[in-house]
Amino acid sequence: MAVPRSGWPVFAVGEEIDMDDVMQKKQAGYGAYIVLGLAAVLLSLWSLGYRGLWASEGRWAEVTREMLQSGDFFHPNINGQPYFDKPLLTYWLVAAASLVTGQLNEWAVRLPSALSLLVAVAITVWLGLKLWSRQVGLTAGWFLLSTYSILFWSRTGVADVENLAVILLAVAWYWAWRDRPNFLSFLVFYLILFIGAQLKGLTAVVVPIAALLPDVVRERRWRSYLSFSHVLALLLGSLCYLAPFFYASMTRPDYQSSGLALVFQENIQRYFDPIDHVEPFYIYFYEVPILLLPWVPLFAGALLAGLPRWRQLDSQTRWLIKAVAMIFLFFSASGSRRSYYILPIVPFIALWLAVYVGNAGGCGALSSQAIGRLLRWLQQLLIYLLALLELASPLLLPLVAEKTGFVVPAGLPLATLLTGTATLGVLLLDWRRPDWLARLTGTPAGIGGLLVAVSIILGGYFCWQTRPLEIYRTERPFALQLKSRLGDLPPERLVFYEKPEPNVLFYLGLPRPATLIENPEQLRDFMEKSRDEYILVIRRKTMESLVATLPQLAGLQPGLAEESFAWQKPSKKLIAYHFGGQ
User: Fold this and answer.
1) Distance in angstroms (rounded) separating the CA atoms of residues 456 and 434
2) Are strands 574-579 and 560-561 parallel, antiparallel or unpaired?
3) Main-chain phi, psi angles of 537, to 5 degrees
4) Following DSSP, what letter does each residue of 481-494 receive, concatenated?
5) Side-chain-side CA neighbours of residue 504 (13 Å)
6) Which residue from 143, 348, 481, 531 has the fewest beta carbons nearer than 10 Å?
7) Are residues 330 and 374 in contact, defined by beta-carbon separation less than 8 angstroms?
8) Residue 360 has what pLDDT?
9) What integer pLDDT is reported at residue 254 of this predicted model?
10) Residues contacting 365, CB < 8 A, separation 6+
């Protein structure tokens, strides 16, 4: 009996078939997929809604809240002001998630990202299985799941992992239908691209095409795409993308924002002539390794094993490396660069790592040489050090507290201790029985234990250790206290200076927009003319700078202040002043 690339048994003519052996192999195969699936569900959903909203999550939350409140799902607003910086589908997914959770809360805001991680892992496994082997697919899925950046963004209520999942889906569809080009395959491909572009932007269109271009060019495969059905499919996909923007512009002539204009500004103009986020062209040379943590030593090994032996690699592996290069060049060529923009490169590198550690595709030739062994040893050392750091955290945290003033919250030492113990236990088990975890996870011997250990470390951090730390995140408690102080006052009596904070607005749940004041002159006029009771919300550092131009603010004590701790910068905290009332 032989085992083909797919991992399923094939029998020679006349060979005696042991059906018990066949069933055991199938069950073992299914078991590895089930273990990976359960790990993905736990890491993506456990404690997902516990943290308060932070950073840009509030934009998705507040836009969706105002959509649900108004019933208008085509004209996004924040505090009643147009906010079409992001496409519509990303908000619709949050609204749909709120039907699952029963309310629009932190769970609903983050659920689309978490489910997108499950989709991304599944597609990564499928690509590995389709192009190389079952082992490569499962190993790539574990690498993706155990990468810090992917897990971080999948538990954050923004559209980055949704965008990544759509890019992977488009690439997978191409490989599924590459040799059967017809109208249906073209149409579905472009629907994936253009509907995906309604999540975060046109990167969902460009990145899959850039990644697939090397294979399309190879052997002049592009000639099979020169057809009327291809052009028609492209046209229909484009219309699906444009339709929501056209509908939005036709139904609200008074809406003072154009979705298509912002598409041009945020996707095309920003690429060639950025207005912000201008970083040096080489930023991704160090940001990509950061995104790959903790798998940087193995990635160095994959680079050294693959590039010098280019002609020895199979066609699929050469395509994969070219795809990684094309994605890297596309984002590096952009004038606007941020670390997480290039997040879609991570699944492709996860596949590359899986090919390398599995000695597949001609990519593992270096693994038996000194440099390959050294890099694998460094990778093992790094993970052992992470486990020991977790284990020693109850002893180290008091030292950190002494140096910084940080007060260790109850529950954190126990969480770190148990996480470190579990991680070290897995590593020791893998050392004594290296084949056991490899069979359980469907990954190569010597790698399964590392993948499970890192998953435990990341799960312990994101799903457990961050819970005690939540008491030091103060924006949600401030917003809820402000909501109580506002009481029966009309929303217009709540005044934000410079800009309203979307996270605060979400927790306030105002039925109408609050008042916004944008400069000192407007604030002076408002304060001089207002005879009604109102609450002014402002950042502490802004208040300190306003005293020079508005001396009447000097000496005023806020009625409500966002709590600040010794290791934090109080200047960034929000404060509120209550005028005209008790």
Assistant:
1) 18
2) antiparallel
3) -110, 130
4) HHHHHHTTS-GGGE
5) 25
6) 531
7) no
8) 78
9) 87
10) 305, 309, 312
The tens digit of pLDDT for each residue in 180-228 reads 999 999 999 999 999 999 999 999 999 999 999 999 998 788 888 889 9
| Calpha distance 448→439 (Å, rounded) | 8
Q: What is each CA distance from 19 to 1, 6, 15, 22, 112, in whole angstroms?
A: 12, 19, 12, 5, 42
Q: Collapsing DSSP states into helix, strand and coil, what is residue 536?
A: strand
Angle formed by the axes of helices 412-432 and 370-404, nearest 10°:
160
The DSSP annotation for 9-40 comes to -B--TTPPP-HHHHHHHHHHHHHHHHHHHHHH
Structure-block tokens of residue 453: 């250990």
CA distance 51 to 473: 9
Structure-block tokens of residue 421: 């113990």
Show the tokens assigned to 293: 């943590």
Tell me, what amino acid is at 311? R
Encode 294-313 in three state secondary structure.
CCHHHHHHHHHHHHHHHHHC
Strand 534-539 to 515-517 pairing: unpaired
Length of the chain: 582
CB contact at 8 A, 1 and 11: yes
Cα 233 to Cα 160: distance, rounded to the nearest angstrom: 26
Burial 66-88 (b: 16+ CB within 10 A, else e): bbeeeeeebbbbbbeebbbbbbb
* Contact assessment for residue 104 and residue 49, using Cβ atoms and an 8 Å cutoff: no
Q: Is the full-model pTM beyond 0.90?
A: yes
Cβ within 8 Å of residue 551, ≥6 positions away: none
| Alpha carbon distances (Å) from 97 to 103, 104, 199 | 9, 8, 15
Q: Residues 52, 106: contact at Cβ < 8 Å?
A: yes
Strand partners for 574: 539
Three-state DSSP state, 560: strand
Residue spans of the chain under pLDDT 50: 1-27
Token digits of residue 202: 């046109």
Structure-derived torsion over alpha carbons of residues 344, 347, 349, 355, reported in degrees to the nearest 10: -160
The helix/strand/coil state of 574 is strand
The predicted pLDDT at position 17 comes to 41
| pLDDT tens profile 390-403 | 999 999 999 988 88
Which contiguous run of DSSP H or E holds residue 544? Answer: helix 540-546
Nearest to 208 by CA among 239, 160, 163, 241: 163
Per DSSP, the residues of 436-468 read HHHHHHT--TTTHHHHHHHHHHHHHIIIIIHHH
Residue type, 195: I
Q: What is the DSSP letter of 252?
A: -
Determine the number of helices (DSSP H) and then strands (DSSP E) in the chain: 25, 7
**Which positions ≥6 away from 332 have C-beta within 8 Å?**
281, 282, 283, 284
**Gap between the Cα atoms of 184 and 233, Å rounded:** 8
